[in-house]
């Protein structure tokens, strides 16, 4: 197989379909090309390795999402089990089966459509297929509701990959995170399928209005309507709550995040500052409520009085911070910029959540907004640094002191 | 084209293609974003602009030698404003509902950069016949884009064309809706127009690579 691919590659070199063969070849094996001249760095962490590491970090979320899909489905029908036991009620074959038949088609459509477009563009434009879509394709099914119709997902993926990425020049050139572009497109194009109390549990839409009607409102959704929710803190942390497929389990997201930080794939600065930002905004809201400035009948009351640190446990905030905000292409590049960038993501996410109950999930909007601002942040960080160094240079005493040489030196370097 | 000389014919042909006011000069974007959610509104807007530009260019061209150049912008504004008021009154009298939909955007034709641009750039320096052709050509170029954008936005966003349900009834679930199709709510909001215009620009430039600027 390997030799055959090598031969195929040689055969199609320079032909129109070459990028397609090369992509398949690189995906399966280490490329057989070596640089012949000049100095070069030998490192194993190329784009392919980076992408695979992120996918590894996502696998627990995906598996958990599958079990949770089944768990929410059966619990909504039969009622939640009273003495919850992990092995008996959660990790069952029934749950996994429901999860497999609902989630796998989403994964397949996401990869199928996305990669098809990537190949098409690569062949048409004559450049190599980049690995960028590998992660996007995995993220997309994790951030949509379980019952998203497949054709909608296909359209959204096509839109996201073409308008969000390829028009800017492909992997590495995009301004917006493609996975979030896809999510945003779905949200604005088909709002009835992306929010409300019917979409988070498998088959809830089909059963609506019948005697078997089931409902699974997310924690944030209930809060936005001013009603209470029936999930315990542990449920929220471990992720036994309704929500988009992969975003519910804060525990597994945390583990994935730690894995990414230790492999140095994702920036810990962005993660930490985003968490801080969310906490600060939550604290401000709690403070307003505690100070008695907000009457209890206000429509913001329930969301604003939601304990500040619990914002991190519900909805997609944790998932967004770990897997979306840290995207190296669309985020800030400078270390100082990353602090600002992350902080505002957390800050704005909680703000959008509270002030606009129509968008209970503010995270994707906050990240997309900061994606747009990331280059500006970097620009000012760079300018600030240049200014600081110029100032340092002006006040610096250059030895030998007080000689004519100093002035000539200064004019030369300035 | 025996009726027009080649030079005159180009006055109409250019704005329709390689010198389109919206996709190449990127003028008049505001109204193109705002009123193209329905095809009917797009067509009426296109016709209104056609009238204002055709007549306006002729009027400016006729008085071009007696306008003091210091106050020419004011004079141009007065001419456009007068024409726009005529359009507005006619719409209010004969198509009241449509006039409601278009609301402020008929009035805003006054500030449409395409119109002022053509007055400044063409009507002030050319005879009435050529000015008329130029006005018609640019208004048609504007209208064509409006109609294309309006067509896609109404078809994908509401499933209708001129208010006729071409894709079936979304509530009774007939036609395409019977197999699970749904309207794309994204196409109704103005940002979608920006993306549709962007795609038109993309298609136009990839068909004629001479239009791509040097980076």
Describe this protein's structure.
The complex is a heterodimer of chains A (414) and B (215). With 414 residues, chain A is mostly helical. Helices cover 63% and strands 0% of the residues of chain A. Chain A contains 19 helices and no strands. The longest helix of chain A is centred in the N-terminal third of the chain and has 33 residues. With 215 residues, chain B is mainly α. Chain B has one domain. Chain B has 9 helices and 2 strands. In chain B, strands 1-2 form a two-stranded antiparallel sheet. In chain B, β1 and β2 form a beta hairpin. The radius of gyration of chain B is 19 Å and the shape is globular. At the A-B interface, α7, α8 and α9 of A face α9 of B.
Layout of secondary structure:
The complex is a heterodimer of chains A (414) and B (215).
Chain A: H1 2-12, H2 18-28, H3 47-78, H4 86-90, H5 93-125, H6 133-142, H7 150-164, H8 178-189, H9 191-194, H10 204-207, H11 219-224, H12 233-238, H13 250-262, H14 268-290, H15 301-305, H16 317-324, H17 335-355, H18 363-395, H19 404-413
Chain B: H1 6-16, H2 29-34, H3 39-62, H4 72-94, H5 96-102, H6 104-107, H7 113-121, H8 128-158, E1 160-161, E2 164-165, H9 190-207
Structure keywords:
heterodimer; A: 414 residues; mainly alpha; 19 helices; globular; B: 215 residues; two-stranded antiparallel ribbon; 2 strands; 2% strand
The strands making up the biggest β-sheet of chain B line up spatially as 1-2
Secondary structure tally, helices of chain A: 19
Radius of gyration of chain A: 25 Å
Helix content of chain B: 55-70%
The 3D shape of chain A can be described as globular
Total of DSSP H or I helical runs spanning 4+ residues of chain B: 9
Overall pLDDT confidence of chain A: 80
Strand content of chain A: under 5%
Work out the helicity level of chain A: 55-70%
**Count of individual beta strands of chain A:** 0
- Nearest-integer average pLDDT of chain B: 84
Radius of gyration of chain B, whole Å: 19 Å
Distance between termini of chain B? 38 Å
Q: Characterize the main sheet of chain A.
A: none
How many E strands of chain B? 2
Strand portion of chain B: under 5%
| Quaternary structure | heterodimer
Q: Catalogue the unreliable spans of chain A.
A: none
